[in-house]
Amino acid sequence: MDNSTLTHPDRNSSNGQTLSTMPENSLEIQVVTISLSLLICGVGIAGNIMVVLVVIRSKHMMTATNCYLVSLAVADLTVLLAAGLPNISEVVASWIYGYAGCVCITYLQYLGINVSSCSITAFTVERYIAICHSIKAQFICTVSRAKKIIACVWIFTSLYCIMWFFLVDTNETVYANGVVVRCGYRVSRNLYMPIYFLDFTLFYVVPLIVALVLYGLIARILFRDPLPMNLSEQRLSIHQGRRQSSVKVSCRANSAAASRKQVTKMLAVVVVLFALLWMPYRTLVVVNSFMDPPYLDTWFLLFCRMCIYTNSAVNPIIYNAMSQKFRAAFKRLCVCKCRSDQGRAGKSNVTVYYSVIKDFPSENGMKKHGSMKTDTLSPA
């Protein structure tokens, strides 16, 4: 994955799979790029923040699967903030963030994208264990274990991406109308091929192969064989079988099965979109690794870049469309925020109103309550 700059690689020193904007870009390219970047990044940043908030603030949403979705949301936020927003300034000007900004933003881009790929792989494995090995899942697929795995993913990826602090630098190019600064690679693009293909294999090919195999096994269990009950459901079924009719137990089991199918379908859609939206850019990486000169059509580069941003922005929309729990949690979060704002406004009004009443002196020795009532009705 040659993502060293989704926004600003140098055309001469990069691997040819640049997604930058060059000084000769037309006004049309600039308008389209800025408009789409603002729209996609705005929706994505707001949506991913909501995902993090609803899981952290709701105890019933704190599940192992949702922990991985929080990790994915934070990684997507990192991509949108480190790649999407700098692109808005980069499209109309040269690199304005200096050398420190170049290495840090490049590092964050790689970190966000690699963590998102690892998070997708992690919740795919978790779904496989939960569906195909439901008895073991009671002891393996726990929130505490999920948090430990997520911590390991972030630590490993953070260490892996440190190499980009030493592989990028700012480059100056002299044009007729002045000097243009770009954030690009230090040496020839040919020397970066092992890194590109290592990233391509570890963070795209392997996750997709794992997802293809595991979701195939999950589909066989969910849609062909009877869905096995987990340990808690078995105990509940035995306990209820002594007290209640078998009809109610069957309804509860069917409801649990439907819920697990719904979650699995939602996560499968996330994986499919990850594969499709990253495919144009990944294909460009492979093709340009063997082409000289590389393929650098401006509109296709813009399309690749917007696909990447869309992948980081679309997941909250999928959760809201396919998960009743997430949809209800999003609504509660919005309602609570509105009520909180109204409560603060009401509290402010009451405070001012009370101070005005207190300033009026009581007349004819009236009691405080009577005075407040009279002053309230009297004109200001």
From TrEMBL:
The chain crosses the membrane at residues 29-56, 68-88, 94-113, 149-167, 202-223, 262-279, 299-322. Keywords: G-protein coupled receptor, Membrane, Receptor, Transducer, Transmembrane, Transmembrane helix. Residues 1-21 are annotated as: Disordered. It comes from the Eukaryota. GO terms for cellular component: membrane. Its main location: membrane. Signal peptide: none annotated. The keyword Membrane applies. GO terms for biological process: phospholipase C-activating G protein-coupled receptor signaling pathway. This is Thyrotropin-releasing hormone receptor. It comes from Labeo rohita. The lineage of its organism: Eukaryota, Metazoa, Chordata, Craniata, Vertebrata.
